[in-house]
Amino acid sequence: MIRALALTFLAVSLTTAPALATPKKPGAGVTKASAAAKAGAVAKSATTPARPKLDFRLVEAAYLGDLPRLDALLAQGAETEVLDAHGYTPLLWAAQQGHEAVVDALLAQGANVEARSRAGHSALLIAVAQRHSGIVRSLLREGADPLVRGAGRLSPYGYAKAHAQAEMVKLMDRAMAGERL
C-alpha cells in the first residue's frame, strides 16, 4: 500500500507541473512560432526515445532503491540530474530513503553531490537528518560540503550539532580535517 502511494506521489509530482502551464482557452497563447516549434517537437518525438519517461523511471528506481533497474536506466542514458515537481533529483530521493548502493551508483555516474531541492536541501543535509551515516560518508567522500547552509539556515554540520548526532558530527569533522573516510 505504501509503495503504491509513493509511486502515485512520484507520478503526480512529475506530471502536474507541465499541466499547470497549459493555456485555459483553446488556441490561447499560440503563436506561429510556438505552433511551428510544437509541430517540430511532435516530428522529433517520433524519432527520439521518450526521455521524460526514462528519467521518471530513474527517479522512481532511486526512490525505491531498485539498483538493477537504476543501472539499466543509466545505461540507456537516463539523466541523473532530472528534477521531479518538488525539485528532487534521484540522488536526493536515494539519500532520503537510505539507499546507500543507489547513492553510490548515482555518484559514480556523475550525479551532482551538491544538487539542491527547490526548498534548498542538499543530499548531505537530507542524509544527516535521516541519520543515514553510510550515505553521509559516501557524500563526504565525493566532496559534499558540510558547512553549506540549507533552506532552514542550518548547514548539515550545524543540523547534526543542533540535533545531538555525535556520529554525524564526527564524520564531518574527519572530512573537514582531510581524513580519508
Please bin the fraction of helical residues.
55-70%
The coarse overall form would be: globular
Strand content range: under 5%
What's the average pLDDT?
78
Distance between the termini: 38 Å
Order of helices and strands: HHHHHHHHHH
Major sheet description: none
Low-confidence stretches: 1-9, 11-50
Total number of β-strand segments? 0
Secondary-structure class: mainly alpha
- Whole-angstrom Rg: 19 Å
- Count helical runs: 10
How are the elements arranged and paired?
Blueprint: H1 2-20, H2 32-45, H3 51-64, H4 67-75, H5 90-97, H6 100-108, H7 123-130, H8 133-141, H9 156-162, H10 166-176
Structure in a nutshell:
Helices cover 60% and strands 0% of the residues. The chain has ten helices and no strands. The chain is globular, with a radius of gyration of 19 Å.
